[in-house]
Amino acid sequence: MSGRFKVLQFNMQYGQPWDDTYPDTAPIRIRGTVDEIRAHNADIVMLQELEQTLSGGVQAQPPPHYTRLRKEFPAYDGYFSYPKPDERELPFGIGLAILSKTPLREHVCMNLPSPPVEFDFLGEKKTPTDRLLIGATTTIHGREVRLLNTHLLAFFMLKSSSELHLDQRKLVEDQLRRSTEVPTLLTGDFNVSKHQSLIEQFANAGYRTVQSTEPTWRRRPYVLDHIFYNRWLRPVSHTVKPTPASDHHTLSAEFEFVE
What is the DSSP-derived secondary structure letter of residue 247? Predict the structure, then answer.
């Protein structure tokens, strides 16, 4: 329908497909990621964990999976960023991207500091690295739309909670409060196991999530992934879809503008 557009939110776990028996050792298969993204035919694609950190926190340049996606989807404009380099980075997913069928402009990249919460990893004491928020503006059906994408620290994996360490969430909230007069979307893997507090926090900034009941993660029944929107947008439909291409489900939503 004219005036509507579709958004896809997907933590792609650097192209590692889900394996029920050996979920942490399945070989990377970026083809499955490409096929999953293509199947949605979304106007806006918001991605987390595009790349896998190399030994010593090394970030591959150019980022191979983002480079592959740009070749596979030449009709989309794109914006990608790693977080700031850190030798403490563990060998998991890293990097954020926005893909858009309409040109992107006014790019933003914002560091989200992590607190020095100690945790054990393979018998060693570690502290978490910083996280990231990226943004861009585009024009859809003649309307300016602000796009924000983030991936927050999983405090529940560190036997803590983002409710005790609110700094990252508050920095994201600040960005939302600065974007109240233009249609704005915030997507991401928010890594909040008790998601109601996050929903209430962002509701106070004028944003709602398209859904908060269906889990979006295979490893635990948590709603980690969200698409938040403000009063200038109305969700027409949404779908949580399990995919073998990642340990996260995809979350997609169709929007229309509010006059």
Answer: S
- Going from the C-alpha of 74 to that of each of 38, 68, 70, the distances in angstroms are 12, 10, 6
Give me the domain span that covers residue 143: 4-257
Asked if the peptide bond before residue 113 counts as cis, ω within 30 degrees of 0, the response is no
Where do we find the tokens 């694609």? 45
Which pLDDT does position 97 carry in this prediction? 99
Residues in the chain: 259
CATH code where residue 68 lies:
3.60.10.10
The predicted-structure confidence for 16-25, as pLDDT tens digits, reads as follows 999 999 999 9
Contact 44, 185 (CB under 8 A): yes
**pLDDT one-digit tens code per residue, 212-258:** 999 999 999 999 999 999 999 999 999 999 999 999 999 999 999 99
**Number of domains present in the structure of the chain:** 1
Helix axes 167-177, 196-203, angle to 10 degrees: 30
Residue/partner pairs of 172-177 with CB below 8 Å, 24 or more apart: 172/112, 172/133, 172/148, 173/201, 173/202, 173/205, 175/110, 175/133, 175/135, 175/148, 176/148, 176/202, 176/205, 176/206, 176/207, 176/228, 176/230, 177/205, 177/206
